[in-house]
Amino acid sequence: MQRIPISLATDGMTVARPIPNADDPGGMPICGKGIVLTDSLIERLRERGVQALTVEGHPVAVEGEASLEEMLDALEKRFRRVADDPLMARVREIYRKQIVRQMGDGRGD
């Protein structure tokens, strides 16, 4: 998942979290999880005042943000000293799957 400004949203992206109604944040969302964005829907969201949304995967490269490979390399470095500990190996694997899932790569499961 990645939170992006509405200006970077493009046709074909999938909404990962419901988009709340700015007028009634506790009420029904104006767009639900799993909806595939279209140009017309993006325009309607802009008209409703939506400034940012969370989309599936990691479709937008943000300057200064680590890539999937960089994040996995950093994870391996953090756990290097406890590589022989089965419990820590399990914790590392949980973190690895979460990183991969958030970055939108199919290698997460």
- Largest sheet entry: 2 strands, antiparallel
β-sheet strand percentage: 5-15%
CATH topology of the largest domain: Molybdopterin biosynthesis moea protein, domain 2
Order of helices and strands: EHEHH
Structural class: mainly alpha
Q: Please tell me how large the radius of gyration is.
A: 17 Å
Query: So, CATH architecture of the largest domain?
Result: Alpha-Beta Complex
Helix content: 25-40%
- Based on Cα principal axes, name the global outline: elongated
Short synopsis of the structure:
This protein has three helices and two strands, in the order βαβαα. With about 110 residues, it is mainly alpha-helical.
Word description of this protein:
The protein has 109 residues and is mainly alpha-helical. The chain has two domains: 2-55, Molybdopterin biosynthesis moea protein, domain 2 (Alpha-Beta Complex); 68-103. The protein has helices at residues 39-47, 68-79, 86-103; strands spanning 2-5, 52-55. The radius of gyration is 17 Å and the shape is elongated. It starts with a strand and ends in a 6-residue tail after the last helix. The model has no long low-confidence stretch (mean pLDDT 86).
